[in-house]
TrEMBL record:
Gene Ontology MF terms in the entry: peptidase activator activity; proteasome binding
Name of the protein this chain belongs to: Proteasome activator Blm10 middle HEAT repeats region domain-containing protein
GO cellular component labels: cytosol; nucleus
Domain called Proteasome activator Blm10 middle HEAT repeats region: residue spans: 6-118, 122-321
Source organism, top-level taxon: Eukaryota
Stored PANTHER family: PROTEASOME ACTIVATOR COMPLEX SUBUNIT 4
GO biological process per UniProt: proteasomal ubiquitin-independent protein catabolic process
InterPro entries according to UniProt: ARM-type_fold (IPR016024), Blm10_mid (IPR032430), PSME4 (IPR035309)
Length: 736
């Protein structure tokens, strides 16, 4: 009965999933009976939705054929035919649960032509192909419907790329060329666009997702489409052609699995030896996966390099020569195309060689890695006209300066240029967003199909292949390069854009800035002094710049600057956060400061002030490593002294702020909360701070009194002598 209680439906769904694993013959039939009854019952449509939410978890037991229960497969066709009419455009929740159930079934059931198994018809494949072609090429879809139909094409092109390309790609290219030839040049500059052309470009962009080697025979056809459509200024059309460029380059140059089918058996063989129904929902042993991968061939690399050399350099030349004369739409079209081509090809472009930034932290130990996890998968080195990263760095960097100075209101173009600029130091074919998206996909599927009640892993084959893929992607993402002068130049330009007066530009630049500084160890040090100078300016203050700096301090889910392990940074920034509110009375800035102080209180953990290393550890390290010079051995002592000095300065500054009558009680509360976080017993706490804590116990403000009591309590605990442990034998303990 809990199935029909909306408050407990999630728990009921999990219970049904686990019980169906144990006794499917007792769980599956009653649920299916209730489902079919709810479909016929139009007076209580909510019952159908609630039951459907329980189905994805038990689909694996329905489609699987086991010795204890094999009748579940008889429900599959009836179930699919029964719930298809339930896709109701007026009820989004019903659509969502219905598509989730269909998705779960089709992930575990191979869809092939089984007509020869019962000798009712020779072959249905050709008829299915004709219906798909007629549906895709003979219809025009609105912008919302295009996404769903494009998803259909994306699936079928991965399953059988050779056949689908043969039927669809020539027709699609022919349609595009006919439209372009009939319209002459008018359609290129038509901002309204042509709905038929836009749809065929979207279809074309999905078709070039096919495996790289299958696209080679259509090379001339593909290049012809790009030559004809590359200068279209209609937004949906040029975005489709830009996505087609990215998909094409990734198909040609990336490493990816090409066989995700459920079973290793050949489904096209005679059904006398194997019936596909017996593979429904079955798992494959990890040692017998036989995963096949696409490795780029020489011809594919040449095709990708030719494509990049043909189009990206022409767009860069156009922007360099006519940037100020182009319209906003033309400029955005060109930058969008460059962005998508860069995303598709930067995997093949080597890193820019530059000098390493030194003295980010006082240490003789390299904080980068001497190993560069950047292994080439190409049998032939890709060749471009020059180092594409350096060319983009120079051209896009200059373009950003020109746009900010002369067209600062062209926010869309500036943001696209920022996205290109931020790719250069960290992008090698995979991003953190791609990893998170793939992890989410795997997590959702594991929740449905993982056999949690057994000790042995029994995932479907496609899920195990995805798990292997994500490990490869993570290996590609975490490259551990050292922070160079080129990277520093990019970080500083992004910081400058992060305090721009336009909020959209600030936000986009900050997102890219956080990604880079989180990728390189201690790279945040290069912006600390700039933030400190901005927050402590004595002249007229720009509120947008102050807000931009505060948002950088607030960070994102992965990076939070005020709690990074650097006492010199904390000495500069913590007091600046408190006093910068004096520059403005805007509520938004006060709210930002409150959010920063709250997050510091939640995430700050006391960093080491004195790094003690005993003599035995030092001797062992000396034996394992190169012999250090005498002056290098003093680095640790100097660092400890600098940490202690920064700590004392920070505590004294916070104490001065607490005793400053010009500050508000809100600023005093932030100062007191930060001081309480810094209490420790390795270094003597300044007496002035202790005196302030005692004085504030009787303060007029109740919040300050609470913090003072907390601080005094912490001080008293820190004064407790350490416990002395005496070692005694078991006989001595028992004797007493």
């Amino acid at each position: 009965m809990s199935i029909f209680n909306e408050d407990y439906i999630e728990d009921a769904a999990k219970a049904c999933q686990y019980l169906s694993i144990l006794r499917p013959e007792l769980i599956v039939p009653p649920i299916m009976k209730k489902l079919f009854l709810s479909i016929d019952n139009i007076t209580e449509p909510g019952r159908f939705t609630l039951i459907m939410k329980c189905l994805p978890g038990i689909i694996c037991q329905i489609v699987r054929q086991t010795s204890n229960y094999s009748e579940g497969q008889t429900y599959v066709l009836t179930l699919m035919m029964s719930i298809l009419p339930c896709i109701d455009s007026n009820d989004f929740e019903k659509i969502a649960v219905t598509l989730e159930v269909l998705d779960a079934i089709l992930k575990l059931v191979p869809c092939i032509d089984c007509s020869s198994a019962i000798h009712t018809r020779n072959d249905l494949t050709e008829i299915i192909h004709q219906k798909i072609i007629k549906f895709l090429t003979g219809s025009l879809f609105s912008s919302k419907v295009r996404k769903f139909v494009a998803g259909l094409v994306r699936v079928i092109i991965k399953v059988n790329p050779i056949e689908i390309l043969k039927y669809l790609l020539p027709q699609t290219c022919e349609h595009i060329e006919n439209i372009m030839n009939n319209s002459q040049t008018a359609i290129l500059m038509d901002h309204k666009g042509d709905i038929e052309l836009t749809w065929h470009l979207v279809l074309f962009s999905e078709l070039v997702r096919a495996r790289g080697d299958t696209l080679l025979i259509y090379k001339q056809m593909i290049m012809s489409v790009f030559h004809q459509c590359i200068r279209i200024v209609h937004k949906d059309s040029y975005e489709a052609i830009a996505k087609a460029a990215k998909h094409l380059l990734k198909s040609l140059s990336d490493l990816y699995s090409i066989d995700d089918q459920l079973s290793l058996e050949n489904m096209d063989e005679s059904f006398v030896d194997c019936l596909p129904i017996r593979a429904w929902g079955q798992h494959v042993d990890f040692d017998q996966l036989q995963v096949q991968y696409h490795f780029p061939t020489v011809d594919e690399i040449d095709f990708a390099c030719e494509f990049v050399n043909t189009f990206i350099y022409a767009e860069l030349q156009l922007l360099n020569e006519k940037c100020l004369n182009l319209s906003k739409e033309e400029r955005l079209r060109s930058l969008t195309l460059i962005h998508y081509i860069a995303v598709g090809c930067l995997r093949m472009v080597s890193r820019i060689e530059s000098n390493q930034v030194i003295d980010l932290v006082p240490t003789v130990v390299p904080y980068g890695s001497k190993y560069r996890f950047r292994y080439s998968i190409y049998s032939k080195e890709p060749k471009f006209r020059d180092n594409l990263r350096m060319r983009l760095l120079i051209d896009i960097g200059n373009l950003l300066d020109i746009l900010v100075e002369n067209h600062c209101d062209d926010v869309a173009s500036i943001n696209t240029a920022i996205n290109i600029y931020a790719l250069l130091p960290i992008y090698y074919g995979i991003s953190q967003y791609d990893i998170n998206k793939l992890c989410q996909y795997i997590g959702l599927n594991e929740a449905l199909f993982k056999y949690k009640l057994g000790g042995k892993r029994q995932n479907p084959r496609f899920l195990t292949i995805k798990q292997i893929t994500i490990q490869i992607k993570k290996f590609e993402l975490y490259h551990f390069e050292t922070f160079t002068e080129i990277d520093k130049q990019i970080v500083l330009k992004l910081f400058k854009l992060s305090i721009n007066r336009y909020s959209d530009i600030r936000s986009n630049a900050q997102i890219n800035l956080f990604t880079i500084v989180n990728d390189y160890f201690f790279s945040y040090q290069v912006i600390v002094d700039h933030i400190y100078a901005m927050l402590n300016r004595s002249d007229k203050v720009d509120h947008d710049q102050i807000k931009g700096c505060l948002y950088i301090l607030l960070g994102d889910n992965y990076f939070f600057l005020p709690t990074q392990p650097s006492w010199t940074m904390m000495e500069k920034l913590w007091p600046s956060i408190i006093v910068c509110i004096n520059h403005t009375n805007k509520l938004s800035i006060k709210t930002l400061i409150d959010e920063i102080s709250t997050r510091i209180s939640e995430e700050f953990h006391m960093h080491a002030l004195i790094e003690d290393i005993n003599e035995m550890s030092m001797r062992a390290a000396t034996n394992l490593w190169d012999q250090l010079k005498p002056n290098e051995m003093e680095t640790c002592k100097e660092r400890n002294q600098n940490n202690i000095q920064s700590y004392n300065n920070l505590m004294e500054t916070l104490n001065l702020l607490l005793n400053d009558d010009k500050l508000t009680w809100g600023q005093h509360q932030i100062s007191m909360s930060l001081m309480c976080l810094l209490l420790q017993k390795r270094v003597p706490i300044p007496l002035s701070c202790i005196r302030t804590l005692v004085d504030f116990i009787v303060h007029d403000n109740i919040e300050l009194r609470k913090y003072a009591v907390i601080g005094m309590t912490a001080l008293c605990r820190l004064q407790k002598p350490p416990r002395v442990y005496v070692e005694k034998s078991l006989d001595e303990i028992l004797r007493h």
